[in-house]
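User: Second chain of the day. Same drill as before.
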Amino acid sequence: MMDDANIMLDPDPARASPWHFVFTTKDAAGDQYEEQFAIVTGAAPRLASLDHYAQRSVLASAERYWPSDRQHMWKAVPRAGAFSFRNAASRRLLCQSRTAGVADTAPPSACDNPACLWRLVDPHTRAPCAVLYDATASVVPPEVSGVSEAEETKTQAVPPRLLLRTQEASSDVAERFAQSIKLEQDLVRGMVDGGYTAIVLGPQLVMGFKDGLITKTYLQDEGGMFGMPKFKAKDGFEASPT
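Assistant: Same format as last time:
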């Protein structure tokens, strides 16, 4: 049945399915809420995002990729060398079922229960990862990126679809972009070297766990840093960034 849990857990990374994270800040209705991640598996166009379906069971189904749906969104909270994931709709924590090897949920009060704590493992090296991030939204230091040099050199096939066009950025914008990336990378490196055991990296936000405390660092507004143009709307609306 559709509402039956179908995420089986396996202690062997070689047999387990690879997952990645997609960052978002808005739900389907366009309302702002805290930074969330979709937990995604599969390959386009058959992506699947982890769903607390009807707030009853945890499942992922091919082509059910709805990162803007609150039941598919998870708040990543760094813990001691691990992460807990709180569903945006139900507010329950992703956990391992006590009676079966499947993914389930638990109340927020179980935040320190080992069954609700998840460690990230690099799918290529099998090494633990201390930084959780969306590779399309953030550029992390190479030493913690989780991608080996061999993988980076592989050429990925591009599907025959319409693609975005690009143009050369001005030297001023390119320099500011490089400064922004350096700021993030220096901050992440400093936290890793400083003993932070779990870090969540999102655009303009770095959150880390150390000595029982969670630290949040908000970065400079990139819209202002890049000098984004503003346009005057008709009918007396206020100017807004693109």
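The first helix runs from residue 149 to 152.

User: Great, on to the next one.
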